[in-house]
Every structure is written in structure tokens, then in C-alpha cells.
Amino acid sequence: MQDNTGPAGLGQELGQADRIDITFDNRGDRLIGLGLVNGVLKVLSLGFYSFWAKTEVRRRLWSFTRINGEPLEYTGTGKELFLGFIIVFFAFVVPLMLGGLAIALLFPGNRGALAIYQLAAYGLFFFLLGNALYRAQRYRLSRTRWRSIRGWLAGSPARYGWTYFWTLGLPFLLVALLTAFVGWVVTPALAGPVAILGLIAALWVLPWRSNMLQRRITNDMRFGDRPLSYSGRSGPLYKRYFFAWMGSALLVVAAGVATLLFMNKSGYLESVAAGERPIPTLTQVAAVILIWIVTIIAMGLVTAWYRAMQYNHFATHTHLEGATFRLNASGKSLMWLMLSNWLISMLGVVFGLAVGGALVYAAGLTPQPSAPGAPPSEPGIIPVLLIMLPIVLATTVATTFAQFRSARYFLSRLKLDGPVDLAAIQQSASSGPRLGEGLAQVFDLDAF
Amino acid sequence: MHSDAASHYARLSDGKSAAARDCRVRLDLSGLEIVSDDGAVRMRWPYESLRANEPLRPQSIDVLLSSTDAPGVTVFVPGTQFPNALAPRAPQLTRHAERWRHAKPWVIGAAVLAGLAVLIHTAGWTPLRTIANLLPQSWRERLGDAAIESMAENRQRCVNPVGAAALDQLTQRLSSVSGTGQDFKVLIVDWDLFNAFAVPGNKIIMTKGLIEKADSPDEVAGVLAHEMGHGIALHPETGIIRAIGMSAAVELMMGGSGGTLANLGLILAQLGYTRAAEREADDQALVLLRKSGISQQGLANFFRRVLSEEGKYANDDQNTNGGKSQEKDDRLARTLDMFSTHPPTEERAERIRMSASYPSTPALSAEDWRAFKAICATTAPLTPPAEDEAKR
């Protein structure tokens, strides 16, 4: 039996400039089964399988991505991710935890000391954030192959991390200094409004900042020995950003007013005014959380038009050799992607919770109602497991599917215009970092 | 396995450039034979050296292969036929084999862990208490101070000198027979709450509410002995170590950021004892009471009263604290009150009541008891521990 005919799209391309065609296979149904198995194994392994689960999902998503009909290959392993995580866990997280414990022991009951410590810890996290993002991206690129050629990020994580830090840190520091100056030298009454207006004004740096970071990371990207290059400027981003920025500011103000009105109506503010420190009731907490969840979703929707444009902007100014990328994202479709993915995730949690609750109820293990904060006299492990199991399963399936939908959204809308002489692209000299994403996993940053 | 004569169209990438050449692959007896159409490349990859980009499954539409024999080189074989022909020859590439290979260490690890937990539990070994035992005394005291601070917040301590003398006398009488050579410090807090807590470092907090409700010095002695029982058995220390271990484990599993542990106060406030721990404290209390010649019936009476008031309290929506106490106090009282947190079972009260009797004298004289009841007539702020030590 002879199978002689090569499929369409796999023509003779040797030795000349090639057209590049990016497609994404719509095989998401495969990921539902994978999500279920990953969920079960995560539970059985007390969560440790998640590194391997993540790797398995990536292998599928990479494989769904086709360039001229040939798949991307993900060559990373769960072990690399796991070891990277373990190293960072013991190098950063454990010392930070022990530090918190030491502070609590050295200054018993001193909330100020703990607050300062936590602030410092968060500052350190923010300082390391860009570095972590860069390293994670570098790891993923180095484990991505197409036609046996690897990707790479050739720059320095520290440099990117520093840019990431100061481009946001500096504006906020300026606002803090200005607030302090106004508060001390002019009048304390103005400090609050100055801080709020200053923060809103400081957000004006964001398009400039993301354009700059995009330039940094794109110019560092390599496919084999060929660099990608970025030619975008932030100017064109600002017109749409203005509306996103105004809309978000208005939403935050509206949510703030709604919160105050509600707290006033429910009598909470009165007791605060009377100098008490009332504990909010469950209804009050739930209502405020609901207000802000709705606000955050609405902000995501309002900013979708801007973000779609920003993604398109990034793509249009990214070049490989003589070719230029093009992305066809739109505000409406991006909004729908966000909303539907969010609904899928919520559905997963709700479904898992419902099944878990039903299991606990059916097993007759419904816990006695106890007041909030009361020490549990006899914490039962079985009902906790019965609830956790379906939740982990359902959310793993839901998030896997949501990841697939995001990848499909971007990759099926991405084009590379112009010819690339593929035969001239040589393998990169670097074989990539030995271990996985470490820091970024601790921060839980990687979307894929 | 017979040799498959069919050759399949494929694309070969050599790991040096992004060009790809057309080639034919054939499934041989022991490996994959690859011949490029231009004849420049000819390779054989043994089946066991193969690696696939995706696990093989019946629905596979194509496969991208590489081999440990030829690092960097990849072969992409389109079409559904080839993966299905390859699967029986390279079973390690199939979905089930791959999955099980990755999951096996963890599943076995989890099983071993579960087995160890069962073993430790049945052998009665308490590793957490062993760790608690290793904590230096100064650490324990600091933990205790942190616990007191976070529980009693801005409240005052009761320091009326005559009452304090009576309290010292009672504490001495009980702790001198504990056999541990350690002193207990009892702190009375001006708090309408009805409860007593043992905190690390052999410290005990007792509330004004409890003293006011107590009918006899023997009841207070019983409660003190019970809390000392917790302290001698290192229950507070063990609880904290358990909570720290739990949150570290959760952080490890969730990939958390280390924020949980910073809030030690929260951990301390959530300490709860298991039934086994309560029984252990009861047993210890009985020993202390017998050795110091105080009747155990005080503790039994106390439990019985808690039991009978429990039902009443649960339905009682009125403010039982009286006076100026605010909603907050009321709610806190509800959540921390002994009636809701320490519901003694009938069985526990009965066990104490039925234990063998012995000659006993009242825990305090009538005069001392009156003085003790009035210990909250004078209050002082919860002083920092250093000054506290200096005053004693």
C-alpha cells in the first residue's frame, strides 16, 4: 500500500522565500477528557500533579497550532516545572513565611510590625514580578519548536524586570511624594483627593509602559538565530485608552458611591460615625463583594475595546525578517471571550460545589452551623474531601477549556504577511534554561 | 509483530535549519525507517527511542516524532493511518502509557503518605507534639503572649491585690502537684465572655464572665485544672504547629505566596481541640485535683451547668451580657463562648462525676473566695510581657 500524496499545504518549499500560514485546530473536545483525567490525578497526588497536568495541556495547545500545516511542538516537561517551583518555594516562600512567623514572635500582637513586613514582602514581589514574567516566557519559548527550530529570549530578565518595576513604581512614588507634600506642607484635608486624583492620573502611563515592555521583550525574541523586531510607538494607543480610562474611573466612582449608599442604608456608617468598630454582617459583606465583582467585570468589558486595539497594535508592529504579523482582534469578540470564559469558570465552580454539596448531604455529613470564627471542635476531613473533589474536577475541566478558547481566539486571528526564507533560518545556539518557570508559578502568572 | 510494507509521506526537519524535506517513513520490525526523497538522509529510529508531540490515540490525525537517537531532528507524519499503525509498535507513546508514567510517582507517593498517616494514627504517635516538645520555653512564652494579645485585644486584666493573692494561692496549690516543675500563670481578663483558654508557655486566660458565673471555688479549680491539663499535654503548642504545618502544606499545594502565615493571630484564634485532647485534659485535671485534695465534683458540676445552659443559650437571642455591651461584644461572645465552643458531652461530665472519691478540702476558704470573686474591682491594661515579668 502506497500513500503517496502529501496533503495540501505541505508543498515543496526548499530554498526559496515561503509564505507563512498560521492556523489553529479546533479540537477542544479532546481537552475535556484531558481536563477530567488531570483533575482526578491532581486530587490523587494532593495537587502535585498540576505541573504535569499543565505540561500535558500545553502539549495539546501547541500541537493544535499549525504553521504551514506543521505543528508547534512543546518540549517542556512536568519535572522541569516542578523543580523550578520547588526551588523558588524554598528560596522565597519558605523564608518569607518564617520571616512572618519571626515577626509575630518578636513583636507579639504588634499589628504595625506585621503590616510593615507584609508591605515589604509585597514590594519585593512586585520588584521581582517582571523578572519572573520574562523568565517564564523565556522558558516557554525555549521549549517551543517548529520544524525542529527553537525559540528563545536573548535578553536579560533583570533588565526587563527593572523596567517593569520602575515604569509603574516611579509614577506611584511621585504620587506618594506629592500626597505627602500636600498633606504636610499645604493642608492634610487635601491629601486624600490628591492621592486619588494622582493615582488616576498615574494610570495614564499604562499604554506607554506596555508598549515599552512589548518592545523590550519582542526585540529579545528569537526564532532560531533570527530576531523578531518591534516598531510600535505608544501614541496611537492613547485615543482609545482615554475612553477605557475614563470609563473605568467612572465605574470605580460609581461602585464607590454604591458601596457607601448601601452601607449607609444598612446602618453601618452610622455606627462607624458613632465611634464604634462594627463587624459587618454577612449580607453587607456579600453585597459589597457583589458590587465590586460586577464592577470588575464591567471594567473588563469597558477596556476590551482598548485591549483589542493594543493586541492588534503589538502584532502589526512585530516583524520577522521581511514579514509582519497581523492580528484581527475586536472589542466585541474579546469581550465575549472574556465573559464566556468567566461564565465557564463560574459554572465549573458552581457545578462542583453543587455536586460536592449533594454528596455531603447524601452521606449525611452536613456540618453543624457554627458562628463565623468559631474554632471547629471536630473538623471532619471526609466532608471537606467530598466537596473539594468535584470542585477540583469541574474547575480543572472548565479552566482547561477556557485556556483552549483563549488560545483559539488569538491564534486563529493571527497572520504573518510577507515571505520568510525558512531555509536560511538556523538553529539558535542556546539550548534554553535547565529548569522551569519557578518564580512565575509561585505568583501564579502563567495563563498557559 | 509483522513488518508493515506501507511507506508514509512525511516531512523531515534536521534540527539545523527551518527548511523541511519530503521523505518516506516505513514501520520496520524494530524501528522506524526514514529515507528522504532526495536520498540525502537515511535513518533508523528504534521504537523505544521515539517521542511524540502528543500521545497516540485512535483519533490522532497526525504525529510529530523525534528520537533520543537523533537529538534535534523531527519527523512530521500527516494522516490518520500512520499513528494507528505505530501505536502497537511503540506502546509507550499511547495516551494511557504516558499518563500513567507521569502520574505513577505521585499516586504511589500519596498512597504511601496515607499509609503512614494511618500507621502513625494507630500507633498513637503524635509527631506534632514531639515537635512541640522541642520548642524552647522562651518561644512558647512568646507564642503565648502573641495569643493573649490577639485574643484579648484592648481589654483590661483584673489585678485586685487581695483577689490576686487568692488566685495565686489556688494556682500554686494545683501546679505544685503537676510534677512538671513548671509554673502556670493565670491571667484574669475583664471580659464578659464565659470561657477559659490555655495558651502556649503555660499560661491560662480566664474571663470575668466565668468567675461571675462560677458557684464555688471548686468549680474554678476544676476549670483551672482542666486548662492546666491542656498546657501540660502541650495542646496549645501542638495546635499552633498543626496550623502552621497545614497552612504551609496548603501554600505548597496551591503555589501560594506565603501570606497566610503572617497572620499568626488568626491561627491562634482558631485553635480548637479534638475530643481526644479534651479527654486527655480531663484525665490530667482529675490527677491534679486528687493530688491537691480538691474535690473533682466542682468540675463535674461546672460541666453539668454548661450542658444545661447550652440549650437555653442557643435559643436566647437576648443580650445576656447586660450593661453597655455593644453588638460586637455580643457577637464575639457568642463565637468564643464556652457554651458554643466547648460543648462537653454528657459522657465527659458523667465520667468525672463517677470517678473515685477521695478526702478533699474546699479549693479556697470562704473569705478567699469572696476576695477572688472581686478580683475585677481593680483593672490594669494588658501590659507588655517584659514589664509583666518585672512586676512578678
Question: Key terms for this structure?
Answer:
heterodimer, A: 448 residues, eight-stranded antiparallel β-sheet, three-stranded antiparallel β-sheet, 13 helices, globular, disordered N terminus, B: 392 residues, alpha+beta, PH-domain like, 2 domains
Description:
- The complex is a heterodimer of chains A (448) and B (392).
- In chain A, 31% of the residues are buried.
- By secondary structure, chain A is α+β, with helices and mostly antiparallel strands.
- In chain A, strand 10 (318-320) and strand 11 form a beta hairpin.
- Chain A is globular.
- In chain A, 64% of the residues lie in helices and 9% in strands.
- An eight-stranded antiparallel beta sheet of chain A has the order 5-6-7-8-9-10-11-12. Chain A has a three-stranded antiparallel beta sheet with strand order 2-3-4.
- Residues 1-15, 368-379 and 444-448 of chain A have low confidence and may be disordered.
- Chain B is of the alpha+beta class and 392 residues long.
- Chain B has two domains: 7-93, Pleckstrin-homology domain (PH domain)/Phosphotyrosine-binding domain (PTB) (PH-domain like, Roll), CATH 2.30.29.30; 137-391, no CATH class.
- Chain B is 50% helix and 16% strand.
- Chain B contains 16 helices and twelve strands.
- Chain B has helices at 81-86, 95-123, 127-134, 137-152, 161-175, 208-213, 217-232, 235-254, 264-269, 275-291, 297-315, 327-336, 338-341, 346-354, 366-373, 385-391, and strands at 7-13, 21-27, 31-36, 42-46, 50-52, 62-67, 70-78, 156-158, 185-189, 196-199, 203-207, 379-381.
- In chain B, the strands form three sheets. Chain B has a seven-stranded antiparallel beta sheet with strand order 4-3-2-1-7-6-5. A three-stranded mixed beta sheet of chain B has the order 9-11-10. Chain B has a two-stranded antiparallel ribbon with strand order 8-12.
- In chain B, a hairpin with a 3-residue loop joins strand 2 and strand 3 (31-36).
- The model of chain B is unreliable at 255-266, 313-329, 331-335 and 384-392 (pLDDT under 50).
- Strand 1 (2-3) of chain A pairs parallel with strand 1 (7-13) of chain B, so a sheet runs across the interface.
